[in-house]
Amino acid sequence: MTKQPDALDALAAAPAAELRETLLEICSSPSWAAAVAGTRPWSDRDALLAANAAAMTALTVRDLEDAMAGHARIGKPKTGDATSEREQSGIKGVDPMLLDELHEANAAYEAKFGHVFLICATGRTAETMLASLRERYRNDAATEAEIVRGELRKINDIRINRLLDES
C-alpha cells in the first residue's frame, strides 16, 4: 500500500508556480514567497515555520510594504475574504462607537507611518487591538517596523498551520 502524501509533502512537491501562488496567499511579499519556496522540501512543519521566520527576518522595508499590502485595515475586514473575516472576528458585533475610535486611530497611525496598522488579530478583541494601536502609535518608525515584522511572522505561522491542518 502506498502512503498518501500529507499536506506538507504535497506543498513541497507542488509545481513552482502553484507553490508561489499558495505562498502569496499566506504573505503577499514576493520576496518572502521566493525565500520560503527556496527552502523546500521541508522535513516537518517546524522546518516550514522556521523558513517563515528566516524569510521574515530577511525582508527589506520594501518587502514589508509588499507584505502589509495584503492585509485589510483593522476593523475593516475585506468583504468576502474568509481569511480576513476570520482573523478579524474580534470586531464582530462591537459597539459602532468603538469601531469609529478604531477607524480614527487607524487613520492617525497610517498618516504617521504610511501603512496600515498591522497586528495579529486572531483571538483579539476590538478593545485590545485599539489599545495596542494607541500604544504602538508612540513608537518611532524603526521600532514599529520590527514590531510589524514580528506580527507578520505570527500571522504567517497561523496561516501556514491552518493550510497544513485543512489540507
From TrEMBL:
Cited InterPro entries: OHCU_decarboxylase, OHCU_decarboxylase-2, OHCU_decarboxylase_sf
A single BP term in Gene Ontology: purine nucleobase metabolic process
Stored Pfam families: OHCU_decarbox (PF09349)
EC number: 4.1.1.97
Catalytic reaction(s) noted: 5-hydroxy-2-oxo-4-ureido-2,5-dihydro-1H-imidazole-5-carboxylate + H(+) = (S)-allantoin + CO2
Record domain Oxo-4-hydroxy-4-carboxy-5-ureidoimidazoline decarboxylase: where: 13-161
Superkingdom, taxonomy of origin: Bacteria
Keywords: Decarboxylase, Lyase, Purine metabolism
A GO MF term: 2-oxo-4-hydroxy-4-carboxy-5-ureidoimidazoline decarboxylase activity
Pathways per UniProt: Purine metabolism; urate degradation; (S)-allantoin from urate: step 3/3
Gene3D superfamilies: Oxo-4-hydroxy-4-carboxy-5-ureidoimidazoline decarboxylase
NCBIfam families linked to this entry: PRK13798.1 (NF010372), UraD_2 (TIGR03180)
Protein name per its UniProtKB record: 2-oxo-4-hydroxy-4-carboxy-5-ureidoimidazoline decarboxylase
Organism: Kitasatospora camelliae
Gene: uraD
